[in-house]
Amino acid sequence: MSILRTENLSKTFISRHGIIAAEKTEALKDINIRLEEKELIGIVGASGSGKSTLAKLLVFLYRPTGGKIYYMDEDITKYRGKDVKKYRKKIQMVFQDPYASLDPNHSVEWHIKRPLILSRYNGDLDNRIDELLDMVTLNKSYRAKFPHQLSGGQRQRVYLARTLAVSPEVLIADEPVSMLDVSVRIEILTLLQRIKEQLGISIIYITHDLNTVSMITSRLYVMHQGMVVENGDTDSIINRPSNEYTRKLIAAAPNPYKRI
Ligand code: ADP
Ligand code: MG
Question: Over the stretch 76-93, which tens digit does the pLDDT of each residue have?
Answer without folding.
Answer: 999 999 999 999 989 999
